[in-house]
């Protein structure tokens, strides 16, 4: 049975993958570098999601943010692909969408090269036609967030999703 849609765009973290263990590992290594207390995994789950720079500002402070990002990325480059797992059902779902000729893409706050390495290590990279940094699509979304006109905001958000689907379908 063909899918009722031509494209699907996934947010990488928390949709097809669980990378909390790798983030937890890299973050705690970074915290130890600055002689700060490690953070429990359940707390890490609550403070991630706004990008690495924001995570570093929250955990090591604005003044050490840049150095923290560099330390985190160096560690994550090693542990990210190794410590990340597919969420239950993600393999089956993406295989079924591929079987139905649904064009799939992935967006993430992670740099694209990290996302590519992780998907490759998990054996599903070839199912996606585009793997891109979230900012490539989200500029339109940010315009919507700062609009005072709610109708305009909804139109912009719809345009962002259409844009993302078109990127995935034409890549």
What does this 3D model show about the protein?
The relative contact order is 0.17. A three-stranded parallel β-sheet has the order 1-4-5, with helices on both faces. A two-stranded antiparallel sheet has the order 2-3. It is globular and about 55 Å long. By secondary structure, it is of the alpha/beta class. The chain is built from eight helices and five strands; from the N terminus they run ββααααβαβαβαα. Helix content is 59%, strand content 12%. The longest helix is centred in the C-terminal third of the chain and has 21 residues, at 150-170. The model has no long low-confidence stretch (mean pLDDT 82).
Summarize the structure.
The protein is of the alpha/beta class.
Draw up the topology in text:
Layout: E1 7-11, E2 17-18, H1 20-33, H2 41-47, H3 52-60, H4 65-83, E3 85-86, H5 90-99, E4 103-108, H6 112-121, E5 128-133, H7 135-145, H8 150-170
Parallel strand pairs: 1-4, 4-5
Antiparallel strand pairs: 2-3
Helix pairs in contact: 1-4, 3-4, 4-6, 7-8
Helix content: 55-70%
Dominant shape:
globular
Which band does the percent of strand residues land in? Answer: 5-15%
Say how many strands there are.
5
N-to-C SSE string, H for helix and E for strand? EEHHHHEHEHEHH
Roughly how many Å apart are the termini? 24 Å
> What Rg, in angstroms, do the CA atoms define?
18 Å
Number of helices: 8
């Amino acid at each position: 049975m063909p899918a009722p849609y031509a494209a699907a765009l996934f947010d990488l973290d928390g949709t097809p993958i669980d990378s909390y263990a790798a983030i937890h590992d890299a973050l705690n290594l970074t915290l130890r570098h600055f002689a700060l207390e490690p953070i429990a995994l359940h707390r890490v789950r609550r403070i991630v999601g706004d990008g690495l720079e924001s995570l570093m500002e929250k955990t090591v402070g604005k003044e050490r943010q840049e150095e923290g990002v560099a330390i985190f990325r160096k560690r994550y480059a090693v542990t990210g692909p190794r410590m990340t797992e597919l969420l239950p059902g993600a393999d089956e779902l993406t295989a079924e969408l591929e079987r139905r000729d649904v064009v799939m893409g992935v967006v993430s706050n992670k740099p694209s090269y990290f996302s590519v390495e992780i998907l490759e290590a998990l054996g599903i990279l070839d199912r996606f036609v585009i793997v891109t940094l979230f900012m490539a699509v989200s500029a339109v979304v940010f315009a919507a967030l700062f609009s005072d006109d709610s109708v305009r905001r909804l139109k912009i958000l719809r345009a962002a999703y259409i844009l993302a689907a078109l990127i995935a379908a034409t890549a």
